[in-house]
What we know:
single chain; Porin; 1 helix
Amino acid sequence: MKRAFALLAAVAVLGFGGKAFATPSTQIWIPSTDVQGFSVVHLGVDTYNTPFKGQTNGANTEGGHNVINYGLTVGVLPNDEKFGLEVGVDYRDFSLGGAKNPLLLNAKLGVKEGAFGEAMPAIAVGGYDFGTKSSSSATDAADFRTDYNITYGLLAKSFESIGRISVGYFSGNDKVLLDHNGDKANTGLLASWDKSLSDKWWAAIDYMGGNSAYGALSFGICYYVTPGASMIFGYDIYNDKDIGGKNLNGDTFTFQLDVNFDALSHPHHD
């Protein structure tokens, strides 16, 4: 199944603007209805960089900002002909002062497209960016809360000539997902298009609504080095520049490396 990862979350506390990423199976930015098969392990390394700007060690400056996310996701449902279940954990680091609470959790339950009839869409429900810190330090910008707690539902349907269309809705922690005025921006639309262009290339466009730092229009392409390893090149344009752009000093390029392998498979020897 196609795997293009990256998800961002807001770190907009104490004037410290940032993006964070938890990685269930996604398109470029938003979750997808794809779910890892039983015992399939996914390793992902995702980077997000503000283009053409140098790094600085403070928020709201003209410097750049980089985020790197190391993700591990595994399929855990043995009978996966119709259903799938995956769980994952991410370790996230920032160029802007680091992060003292870098671990985030995600999970997803999915029903495969056509599982109960040809016309049936794929269905997925899940959550991501469930962090370990529910309050922020008043003196240390790196000690910020990470309980973004985003839950979502998605439907997806594939069309031979068009590709796959997905629509859904998300809701997150209204104490953390805020716009630049500090108002709640914790719910919104999820939508995407993706399509295999060949056995080596895949493309996607996706959208996440709302004016928190999660809200963005993203697009990108994926190249499969092997059937189990791929590289993704993408770009993210944020809905609210004062949250998603100004504090981070611009939209972001994303480069992602993804590797899948079956933890229970055994090598064959001649």
